[in-house]
From TrEMBL:
InterPro entries named in the record: A_deaminase_dom (IPR001365), Ado/ade_deaminase (IPR006330), Metal_Hydrolase (IPR032466)
Domain Adenosine deaminase residue range list: 20-365
Source organism of the structure: Leifsonia tongyongensis
Name of the protein: adenosine deaminase
Family affiliation: Belongs to the metallo-dependent hydrolases superfamily. Adenosine and AMP deaminases family.
Spans traversing the lipid bilayer: none
PANTHER family, sorted: ADENOSINE DEAMINASE
Keyword field contains Ribosomal protein: no
Cofactor(s) annotated in UniProt: Zn(2+)
Length: 372
C-alpha cells in the first residue's frame, strides 16, 4: 500500500514515528513519491532529470536547498505537471494520505491550489472532487491497515494571480465535501494578503476559516496584513514574527525580551505558527538569524509561549516526514516527550475542526503519548 517510513527515536528510545501526530501545513504537490512522478511522467512524455526514484528524490532535495523561496518553488513545475488529470490527482492524494498514516499522523490538512491543475481540461470543481476521492480512498487504506486518520482539504489561491475570490467561492462550495479551510500560497514578497481582501471578506461572511502564508519570504508587514486583511486564524510559517521580538539581555540562565505589538497580539490571541524547520532553512526564511537549525527562532517562540506547531511543508522537497522534523528539533533543542506532546496539542487546538472534534483529537494525542 505505502512505503515504510524511516523510524525516528527520542534520546530515550521512544519512537517518534509511532506517536500520534497532527499535520497542519503540508502541500499536496510537495508530497509526491518520486516513483509516482516517474510513472505518471512517463505516461505523458514528461522530461525528468532522473529516471530512478532515489536519484530523482535527491534532485528535488538538492534543487530545493537554494536559500530562496522563488527558486524553491520552481521544483513544483515537475510535480504539478503530473497532477493535471483526474487519475493523477486521485492517485497522488491517495498515496499522500497513505504516507501520512504510515508516519503516525492521525489528523492532516492537505493544502493545494486547484487553479494550477486545469491544463488538461479539468474544472476547478472536478479537481477538488478528484482530490477528495483520493483522500477518501487513502483514509480507507489507512483504516484497513489498523490505524486511523482524518484528513481535510485546505483550498489555496495563488497570491500572484487574480483568482482568489473565485477560489474562495470554490472552497465554501465544498465545505461539506472535504474542504475545511482556505489559504493563499506562492511568492510572498510583493503579493500581500491585502490584494485579496475581497476574498477574505467573503470567507468571513460565510464563517469559513483561513490560514495565510506569511512571515516566510516577507516580514512583519506581511504578517500584519495576514491578520488584518486575511483574518488569519493561523500563520503559514510565521517565523519572521521573531523580528518583532527584541532580546534585551541574557545571562547564564535567562533571556529577557520585549515583544512588539504584532508579536504580542499573535501570542495573546494564540494564533498558531505553522513552522516547518527544514523548509525554513531551505528557503532562507530564517536567514536573519543564521543558516543552522540551532539558529531557528522556533525555540525562542516556544519558550515565550507562542502556539508553535511543527510541520513538513513539502515532504518531497525537504526529503522529510513529520517524525523527522520533530526528531531534528528534539536533537537541536534537547526536547523531550512532553515538549513533543505540547506541539501536537497546539496543532490539535488549531485544527480547522469543530470544537468537539478538536477536543477528541486532543484526547487521542494525550492517550497516545501516555501509552508510549
Amino acid at each position: 500500500m505505502n512505503t515504510v517510513p524511516e523510524e525516528f527515536l527520542l534520546a530515550g528510545g521512544t519512537s517518534i514515528t509511532a506517536l500520534p501526530k497532527v499535520s497542519l501545513h503540508d502541500h499536496l504537490d510537495g508530497g509526491l513519491r518520486p516513483s509516482t512522478i516517474i510513472e505518471l511522467g512517463d505516461a505523458i512524455g514528461l522530461d525528468l532529470p532522473a529516471d530512478d526514484a532515489v536519484t530523482l528524490g535527491q534532485w528535488f532535495a538538492e534543487r530545493s536547498n537554494s536559500g530562496s523561496l522563488v527558486e524553491y518553488l520552481k521544483t513544483f513545475d515537475l510535480t504539478t505537471a503530473v497532477m493535471q488529470t483526474r487519475e493523477g490527482l486521485v492517485r497522488v492524494a491517495r498515496e499522500f494520505v497513505q504516507d501520512l498514516g504510515a508516519d503516525g499522523v492521525v489528523y492532516g490538512e492537505i493544502r493545494w491550489a486547484p487553479e494550477q491543475h486545469l491544463s488538461r481540461g479539468l474544472t476547478l470543481d472536478q479537481a477538488v472532487e478528484a482530490v477528495q476521492e483520493g483522500i477518501e480512498e487513502g483514509i480507507d487504506d489507512v483504516n484497513q491497515n489498523g490505524s486511523g486518520i482524518r484528513v481535510g482539504q485546505l483550498i489555496s489561491a495563488m497570491r500572484h494571480t487574480n483568482r482568489a475570490f473565485e477560489i474562495a467561492e470554490l472552497a465554501v462550495r465544498h465545505r461539506d465535501r472535504g474542504a475545511v479551510g482556505f489559504d493563499i500560497a506562492g511568492p510572498e514578497a510583493g503579493f500581500p494578503p491585502s490584494n485579496h481582501r475581497r476574498a477574505f471578506d467573503y470567507l468571513a461572511e460565510h464563517y469559513f476559516p483561513a490560514t495565510v502564508h506569511a512571515g516566510e519570504a516577507d516580514g512583519l508587514e506581511s504578517i500584519r496584513s495576514a491578520i488584518i486583511d486575511g483574518r488569519a486564524l493561523r500563520l503559514g510559517h510565521g517565523v519572521r514574527l521573531a523580528e518583532d521580538i527584541v532580546i534585551e539581555r541574557q545571562d547564564d540562565e535567562n533571556t529577557y525580551v520585549s515583544l512588539g505589538p504584532l508579536a504580542q497580539w499573535v501570542k495573546d490571541r494564540e494564533i498558531a505558527l505553522e513552522t516547518s524547520p527544514s523548509s525554513n532553512l531551505q528557503t532562507g526564511a530564517i536567514a536573519a538569524w543564521g543558516d543552522d537549525l540551532l539558529d531557528h527562532p522556533f525555540d525562542l517562540l516556544y519558550q515565550l509561549g507562542f502556539r508553535v506547531t511543527v510541520n513538513t511543508d513539502n515532504r518531497l522537497m525537504s526529503a522529510t516526514t513529520l517524525s523527522r522534523e520533530l526528531a531534528l528539533l528534539a536533537d537541536a533543542f534537547d526536547y523531550d516527550l512532553t515538549d513533543l506532546e505540547v506541539f501536537q496539542l497546539n496543532a490539535a487546538s488549531s485544527a480547522f475542526l469543530p470544537l468537539e472534534d478538536r477536543e477528541e483529537l486532543a484526547d487521542i494525542i494525550t492517550a497516545g503519548f501516555e501509552g508510549s
